[in-house]
Amino acid sequence: MTEYGRGPGSEPWHPEDPLYGDGGWGGQQAHQGQQSPYGGQPQHYPEQQQYGDWGTGEHAGYGQAQQQYQYDQQYAAQGHQPYQGQGYTQGQGPQQNQHQQQQYDEGGWATGSHQQSPYPGDAADPYGQQAAGYGPEQADDYGTADAYPPPEPPSRRRAEPEPETDWDPGPDQGEHAFFAGGDDDDEQRDRRGRDDERGRGGNPKKRRNGMACLLVVLILGGGVGGVGYFGYQFFQDRFADAPDFAGDGSGQEVSVEIPKGADGYEIGRVLKSAGVVKSVDAFVSAQAGNPDGRNIQDGVYTLQKQMSAESAVEMMLSPESRDNLIIAEGKRNADIYRLIDKRLEVKEGTTAAVAKKDYKKLGLPGWAMNHPGVKDPLEGFLYPSSYGIAKGQTPEGVLKQMVQRATETYEKLGVEQKADSLGLEGPWQLITVASLAQAEGTSHDDFRKMAEVVYNRMKQGNPQTNGMLEFDSTYNYIKNQSKIDLSLSELRTYDNPYNTYFHKGLPPGPIDNPGEEALKGALNPTKDGWYYFISLDGKTSEFTKTNAEHQKLVDKFNASRNN
Question: What is the pTM of this model?
Fold first, then answer.
């Protein structure tokens, strides 16, 4: 028999167990020296199985009743009268029993939450009047002959099957909370509500959310439709020919601008948007099928609407369709402004006025700003290239495009980093040197030698020019002309910062827009000692190191012109 308060796994009770006298059953007899009701004979009982948390004091009623039953059964077998009250020891009165009950409580029995009332002795039915061990509202599980083996404790009893009610597939029966219109908390509340209603014999309420069901139908329907659509598109993309027009066009001309760096798909989108081709895929396929298809460049093209993709590719490869504004190397800003006005079909002088007023807003780098005596701050920054310019654009937009291309080129070539190593005050002077080489050179082979001439003449106290550049191009720039036959008296008497016959060193700024080769020549000049140059045929230049050598070439030139 398990000692109360010791927990699961205790050994069977024995009278010699010292723990038996410390609040266990019969503890009062051991202390008072009274004789055991069994005549002093040691009694051995099979080990009683504990259930759940028995021994903690929460189920003392059942354990006490079971122990009393075993005592009475054996005591009656010996011819003795059963005990007259639950919890009484032979020969003890009520006061002693109360003291003993307190010991039971302190030794691990219940503290009073399930105390049983004493019952009168009855030889025939010793438990006939025993109060329920679990409260006055519970049935007596010990009043019947088949109550043993004892029922399982409440913590291990299997719940009685609930009465069947109208079927309701709750969230745990196949109907998800989403379709029931509730969340997890709603689900728990619904479940408790159903349990309460079933316990009262009521039927739980059923909930259905029609909108949720409709939403599911729409989602599933949309998914099926989406799969069908994309499946059709996949078939069209993989197996069907791309939509395309037939022929060379409808005869209606249209101008399109292809941006710089555009690939085939981007070009196709521009053409499709303008109504030139019917689909982007058709153009990409036609471009890939043409051996020169990759040579299509950026710029403005005059095409026709409703052209076949193959015809559009062929026309874009023809120079006749390209209508770009071409800025040649060495062009001055004054000439470029007039070209822009003409292309945009605006009043002459419009672009020049914008450049003069808003040059600080057009994207110039910081090192190109605030130089004294500069005629045009944008000179040298309208980079020579091909530009797609068409009617409808603004002068500001065109100028920004040109300045951006110049700035990108200068950054790519590293003009800021290399200016100091060339003895210059900054990249602004480097661009100026390149513009002089561009203006005086007659071929790309001349630029490196021409740049060396500039650097050698810039040196103060040099034995040839003593710091004077004496370039005709600087005088022509300030005069906005391009003359060859200039008299020395005219050149050396005109006082202007740009006139290098009158002032030493470099002019205040660039005198034209140098191309990439002139820039590279200024960045990497020859080191042969050149100081002079002359062009005898207008196509090539000859360079010399001394004034005497140079004078011989001048005489030869004059003789060829009958001067």
Answer: 0.53
